[in-house]
Amino acid sequence: MRLAAATLAAAFAAAACAPVDALNALTPNEGVRRVAELRYAEGPRGRLDLYLPPGEVAADAPLLVFFHGGGWRSGAKEDYRFLGTAFAARGFLVAIPNYRLVPEVRWPAFAEDGAAAVAALPRLLAGQGLGASRPLVLAGHSAGAHTAAMLALDPRWLGAHGLSPCRDVAALLGLAGPYAIFPTGARMVVAAFGPAPQPAEVSPLAQVSAAAPPAVLIAGASDTLVSPRNSEALAEALARAGRPAALHLLPGVGHIDLIAAVAAPLRHTAPTLEVAVSALRAALAATPRACA
User: Domain 32-284 carries which CATH code?
Assistant: First the structure.
């Protein structure tokens, strides 16, 4: 991580554990309630955690479903308590699912699991005494942003559960997503998508249409792992389709910096949370699009 040395030193000293554990340990709960290990599918990865805003949950509070990154081969919902807490404290209901990973599976299992989690949320929210009819935001970082974008743009995955991206997805929040997947031979891509992935099938960039939801795309201008050109290209494609896309490239910010800055101890390093919340509120206020 390219983080402030003093901040990281304090985090490790306080938590004496891995960086993400330190961030979670130093993140105040801000009155947020966490409901853990809700089952959306069979198997050890078919669980999600739900974060509820403080006090009484507003009937129109948006539901943000966040898919974690990790190159489709690592990561867990527990690692992102800092993110669930941050967005819930600002009025969002937040769901963070696990999903199956390489080498157990490869594409399209990530999209299938993501869609299953979204489809299960009305039942899971009802089990918490919450209404399910609320604006849905699909969000993710890195590989998780790829999944969020595929669910928001390609009707196959939610359609398998009787849902429509155009009708049922109010906004997309992508953080440093790889929106263009090509058969480059890169080990990570081969492991996740096979030796010859077809861009028209696996790239969010190829799924853009006039039915796309408003998008908020945030990337670090200094990201050397997933080029910010991915976010620029998706924003341009959405604009050509006549769809609103708020693009924010944060100067001096790298791939991990972008997401770590959501945690309370590191918010001074990048305005990821402030930009995301402000832009999402604007996107959710946009005029609804026409759906077939």
Answer: 3.40.50.1820
